[in-house]
Q: What sequence folds into this?
């Protein structure tokens, strides 16, 4: 009887809990470098993206890497040696709110885990920033010297960091269980990558910009260290695509 009473209490408690959030929209941002714009796609159906707009903000010059935390979007501004900061509270109408730069010229790739922002540079390394204050990043370290050859794209799932290694036509894989000390654990190509640039993940899907074909390749990363190629999109629509970022709207 005591167990039954406790079980009923648990059921009563569960009944008072709010329902889990439901995904009502999911957006993919694609930096369109040659047009100085960032394109916006609705990817509520991850294998059938629908274009819903674009933006520039009057300050983008060859935008490349993208990364999102909360309602803040970071854009690597290749030609100006800066990282631009946008408020995306309205996902289809981003508002420019600031910019910053690190120790090296030509930032290319961005990725975020928690309050840590990774910035990949043309020189062949990446810097690590603390973004506890999203509009005032603080430099705390670097990695990849000797391993990376033009890291053009970064993305994270769990404790795995993927780095598009453009000059080697590979995607490098790092363990970031310790965010400020990434450890390289592998790489992949699958025979279909020609100039991998921007990367993005959602659930068990990895998107890889394939600039040589003006497409975005799609990989299944159910096994994070052994991605499987499952499709592509963007042929005929994209001109020198570069960065990717995904924004999910919950209701």
A:
């Amino acid at each position: 009887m005591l167990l039954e009473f406790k079980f009923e209490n648990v059921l009563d408690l569960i009944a008072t809990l709010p329902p889990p959030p439901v995904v009502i929209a999911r957006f993919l941002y694609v930096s369109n470098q040659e047009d100085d714009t960032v394109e916006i796609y609705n990817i509520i159906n991850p294998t059938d993206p629908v274009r819903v707009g674009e933006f520039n903000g009057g300050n983008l010059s060859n935008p490349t890497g993208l990364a999102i935390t909360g309602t803040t979007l970071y854009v690597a501004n290749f030609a100006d040696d800066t990282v631009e900061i946008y408020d995306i509270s309205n996902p289809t109408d981003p508002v420019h709110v600031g910019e910053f730069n690190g120790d090296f010229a030509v930032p290319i790739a961005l990725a975020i885990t928690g309050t840590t922002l990774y910035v990949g540079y043309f020189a062949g390394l990446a810097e690590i920033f603390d973004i506890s204050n999203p509009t005032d990043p603080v430099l705390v370290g670097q990695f990849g010297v000797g391993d990376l050859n033009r890291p053009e794209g970064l993305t994270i799932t769990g404790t795995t960091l993927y780095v598009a290694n453009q000059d080697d036509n590979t995607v490098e894989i790092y363990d970031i269980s310790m965010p400020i000390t990434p450890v390289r654990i592998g790489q992949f190509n699958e025979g279909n990558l020609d100039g991998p640039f921007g990367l993005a993940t959602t659930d068990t899907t990895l998107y890889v910009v394939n600039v040589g074909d003006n497409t975005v390749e799609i990989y299944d990363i159910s096994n994070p260290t052994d991605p499987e190629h499952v499709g592509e999109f963007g042929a005929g629509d994209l001109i020198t695509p570069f960065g990717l970022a995904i924004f999910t709207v919950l209701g």
Remarks:
- The CA atoms of residues 56 and 226 lie 36 Å apart.
- The longest helix spans residues 2-16.
- The helical segments are 2-16.
